[in-house]
Write a structure and sequence with these properties.
Layout: E1 4-13, E2 24-31, E3 37-40, E4 43-47, E5 57-59, E6 65-70, E7 82-86, H1 91-98, E8 109-112
Parallel strand pairs: 2-7
Antiparallel strand pairs: 1-2, 1-6, 2-3, 3-4, 4-5, 5-6, 7-8
Length: 116
């Protein structure tokens, strides 16, 4: 059964295991039947099965590496500071249900403070 979910999608680039930070998006992904792959904007992302240092999925078509994870309630999704775009179709839900900050529902992008 395919499920959809709002997730953090950070582009780590084409170089396997090298980029520590990249531009990020918050968007709705759909899981594959097995639950081991994701679809986002018509693209397939397959698990790196633990082989990535700063990435955990690869875009099958472009071969770019990504960090894809569930969104945190505190917004501390990034390891290092990065710019984040929120897809318009999830913007309201992200701010009201995930972050519990309905006053920010108009915000479509922000600078994420990293953990480091």
């Amino acid at each position: 059964m395919k499920r959809s979910r709002i997730m953090w999608i950070e582009n780590k680039g084409e170089e396997f295991n090298t980029a520590v930070a990249g531009p990020a998006r918050i968007g709705r992904v759909t899981t594959s039947k097995s639950g081991k792959s994701f679809y986002y904007r018509g693209q397939l992302y397959q698990s790196l099965k633990g082989r990535g240092n700063f990435s955990n999925y690869i875009n099958v078509e472009t071969q770019e590496c990504f960090w894809i994870s569930g969104c945190r309630k505190d917004g501390r999704d990034a390891l290092y500071n990065t710019d984040v775009q929120i897809d318009p179709d999830v913007q309201y839900e992200y701010w009201t249900q995930i972050r519990n900050q309905p006053q920010n529902a108009h915000i479509a992008s922000y600078r994420a403070n990293g953990k480091y």
